Amino acid sequence: MTYSYLSHLYCPKCQETYKASEPQHLCTCGSPLLVSYDLDKLKEVWSPEHLKERTPDLWRYHELLPLQDPTYKTSLGEGMSPLIPLPTLQTDMNIRKLHMKDEGIIPTGSFKARGAAVGVSKAKELGVKELAMPTNGNAGAAWSLYASRASMESTIVMPVDAPKITRNECALSGANLFLVDGLISDAGKIVAEAVEKSGLYDVSTLKEPYRIEGKKTMGLEIAEQLGWNVPDVILYPTGGGVGLIGIHKALKELQELGWISKDRMPRLVAVQSKGCAPIVEAWQQGQRESSFWKNSETIAFGINVPKAIGDFLVLDALYDTHGCAVAVSDYELLEEQKGIAQKEGAFVCPEGAAAFAAARKLRAENWITAEDEVVVLNTGAGIKYPDTVHIEIPVLQPGDSLQTKKTIR
Amino acid sequence: MTYSYLSHLYCPKCQETYKASEPQHLCTCGSPLLVSYDLDKLKEVWSPEHLKERTPDLWRYHELLPLQDPTYKTSLGEGMSPLIPLPTLQTDMNIRKLHMKDEGIIPTGSFKARGAAVGVSKAKELGVKELAMPTNGNAGAAWSLYASRASMESTIVMPVDAPKITRNECALSGANLFLVDGLISDAGKIVAEAVEKSGLYDVSTLKEPYRIEGKKTMGLEIAEQLGWNVPDVILYPTGGGVGLIGIHKALKELQELGWISKDRMPRLVAVQSKGCAPIVEAWQQGQRESSFWKNSETIAFGINVPKAIGDFLVLDALYDTHGCAVAVSDYELLEEQKGIAQKEGAFVCPEGAAAFAAARKLRAENWITAEDEVVVLNTGAGIKYPDTVHIEIPVLQPGDSLQTKKTIR
């Protein structure tokens, strides 16, 4: 058996193929590229039995990942995040089974670690010395830290408004970090220019084909954690949508391998904010691509993406699985965030909270039925967003007693 | 086989025994109580083979944990945090093998989750309805969130200076949260009074016997992750010292069970800050207990404990394993924190950074030799402490290019 069954790259839009043995970015037609594996060959030699002795991280699926030489594996122990049952919330929402895939329990505190681990490892294998990207925060944090782990240079540009904690992470990693007094699109232009002038390796969302393979492992893990079954519905907070595309790809590959049934695919749900809902708008109109969302605004920074480069792949996944797209307000997601902490003890990020709010909404509309088994992706730790919590707390003086204070209240 | 081989509680100071079937706090002699298991019986029926099919969390060791009825298990997927090799840092320090046990990758972002998961589960089993504790931050965050998960009330008192993120966690959990304009000792007095007046269940450090059993699982995991071997040295940032006591207890129990060799115990190292080093002082003087450290001050909030209730157990563990205690300065730990991020891509907490700085110091003194295998505990995620990072970052305007800016710098 070989370490990876990587075969080649292909364009999902024009079907052109590319060699995976050298660095590749977008297709000449402008589309992101996807990774293809020799599933027929892999099917003959690989079974779930092989996973039993492997460590609980995403590299347990190395046959289905693009890295060919494990020497270049760049890992901080990412993956196999818990799939947590939420009994109180499921009763509250009247859903048969509700689980949270908790991506807060991962290096760098967000699901971006998966894409970075696989993307940096593959870049290292391809001989890349310096990578560059614009970021709204979490992706830059993950890629710059994994780059350091791989002894690779990184250049990161982020808006001044991006969460301070993610800025700390990039700065501490030793990245060439720049803030821009503007939006992520301004950061993107600055990076694009630097890439062109200096030959840096561009790891902007979907501009290299391997990040999606890292994100894909969320789908592989959900299936394994459910005993090689799939739920009825998976909800995913959607900015760039890489994770949703990845989960869809993962489940298709598992079907090809015969590890899960070909008869059943979960309905995938793209969750967005009402302040930035281009995928929702496109899905409602039955479009194959989204339009740029003007003046986008939401407290859920990670899903503030006005026009995703992979939007057509997200929409494909929704149509293919009879899924849907739904938007929630900042108020709804903040209420849900509070409710989840109080009912289940989990402090989810605003993006994850949006996905729970969407589940509640879809249940109310009976799009999710009382009989469904539902998995919600929480894409990061709530602790990364200290500014979303506003609760008044009484201050005591030394020697005060709680009794007194309670009466005063 | 039964779920737990819990036998009874005992006092490590005066040897008095107590029933585990009802709530217990300190011994009448004032010492914390420890949990005893029926290891002779367990030895006959349990082997590492049993663990292979179990999920990667701390409940895989349920036979060695105090919860007797799994119905009361209160879990958010905690445990089996990665043991990460640090090849660059180990070369830098000239140590044969250096690993980090990364407790940042756990619910609530700190190792306190382990104690809370097991402590809250057992409290629930014992019929507790409302718990109370003073906290410097992370413990309160963990216990209040796990209490919510168990539908239990919690009363938490923390200094106004405790990290804001941990305050958020407590507040969001729905705890009865109070700030005190003073120190943790002031918080402790307020909680003690409330416990006495209102009969709340006191879960202050070591005032209930089960937190240590949760922390113990760090030791079980290290042994399992090294293939049922132990390293030569384990370094642990020591405030209350519960984790160090727990790791020592765990390894003793594994020796009794015959899962690891009786001939070898790692040298345990208690790491403190120069601004609060009571254990170090006591160890240097060969004392069995520490003295209160006046005017303690350190940026590593979690190890700012002037006098630990379990100090004698920490010192016992050091003497028993031929370990030592060592203090580092805030400057040293902040430099180490930066170095680890740049060399290995890991953003550790200040307390974890202190333990790495101590490893470097002990290696320089040749107390750690070039032939040793060393495990350092990083007790939490660096992202929980945004105020420890101060790095100047250049700000660009939209349309600027990196080239220009680099020249200006």
Automatic annotation (TrEMBL), chains A, B:
This is Threonine synthase. Its EC number is 4.2.3.1. It comes from the Bacteria. The lineage of its organism: Bacteria, Bacillati, Bacillota, Bacilli, Bacillales. SUPFAM superfamilies: Tryptophan synthase beta subunit-like PLP-dependent enzymes. GO terms for molecular function: L-serine ammonia-lyase activity; pyridoxal phosphate binding; threonine deaminase activity; threonine synthase activity. InterPro entries: Ser/Thr_Dehydratase, Ser/Thr_deHydtase_PyrdxlP-BS, TrpB-like_PALP, TrpB-like_PALP_sf. GO terms for biological process: isoleucine biosynthetic process; L-serine catabolic process; L-threonine catabolic process. It comes from Halobacillus litoralis.
